[in-house]
Design a protein that fits this description.
With about 350 residues, this protein is α/β, with parallel strands linked by helices. The protein folds into two domains: about 180 residues, Medium-chain alcohol dehydrogenases, catalytic domain (Quinone Oxidoreductase, Chain A, domain 1, Alpha-Beta Complex); about 130 residues, Rossmann fold (3-Layer(aba) Sandwich), CATH 3.40.50.720. The protein is built from ten helices and 17 strands. Strands 3, 4, 5, 8, 9, 16 and 17 form a seven-stranded mixed sheet that branches. A six-stranded parallel sheet has the order 12-11-10-13-14-15, with helices on both faces. Strands 1-2 form a two-stranded antiparallel ribbon. The protein is globular, with a radius of gyration of 20 Å. The protein starts with 9 loop residues before the first strand and ends with a strand. Its EC number is 1.1.1.1. Keywords: Metal-binding, Oxidoreductase, Zinc. Its cofactor is Zn(2+).
Amino acid sequence: MGRTDHAGQMLSGWAVGTPGPMRTGPLVPTHRPVAAPGPDELLLEVEACGVCRTDLHLAEGDLTPHRPSTIPGHEIVGRVASVGEAVSTFRLGDRAGGAWLRGTCGTCRYCRAGQENLCPGSTYTGWDADGGFADLVLVPEAFAYRLPEAQDAALLAPLLCAGIIGYRSLRRSALPTGGRLGIYGFGASAHLAAQVALSEGATVHVMTRSAQARELAMSLGASSVSGAYDSPPEPLDSAILFAPVGDLVPVALEALDRSGTLAIAGIHLSDIPVLNYQRHLFQERNLRSVTSNTRQDGREFLELAERIGIQVTVSRYPPDRADQALTDLAADRVNGAAVLTSA
């Protein structure tokens, strides 16, 4: 397959130093030697990397770091610069994507049942291993995605987490054909999931505090937009909570019709207030969490995104402004998805 020797080369990027609010500067520049790819790994030259709210949770300490000075970033689009000796499906120069799920044991009952997202031994890009807030990154071949060669890398990057997680969240919400979907929060993941739902004939109502996000939702075909705590104009068959705000859980549950389902999409959520059984859960309303994704989710979503021509709205930042991208994300100043890219 060929390989290029990067021994002695240094990568440049950003690492999480001391986690804390973005005003404290938790993201710090880093330079470190490039590790040679293992037998089953790809070394990618990063073209673009999406900036996910999970990266913000890691930087600010909402998620406990798994290792010190980790480089975040798990929506990675890159070109193969080097391969391990066992790699068989990628060649030098190929475009590949690295996503959040980085490894699983492959043998536990969850992996055997097609629920690898629940594997107790699962590992994650930018949490258990360095991610894409750098110019070079290692990605296991088995967890890499082949991506279109000609498309703008910045428009592909958000698909690799925001898109995949939004897709899984939509499926977890059990939206019936032609159903009524409520979306709470309308950022990177939500604006992609909404397009999938609309392509399948759903009516979509968006509740979000951002005026810019409400404008984006209307432009994509939402039937209504309103404030985050407002009631939708009709009862909902399904809802997805993308905002990491526990106070919205009872609000969304109360908006559901009988037997409706609320899926909570985030890896972190602030505390949920006390629920009232009659108002929030009775009449067989369902509450579901969403945990990571499977590779099958990724393959299905990427194929669907290409087929329906999904529109990705991005706010571009140069790689040396990753700290600003996370700061803007924390302040809800990002329209669509933030992406680090030199193009």
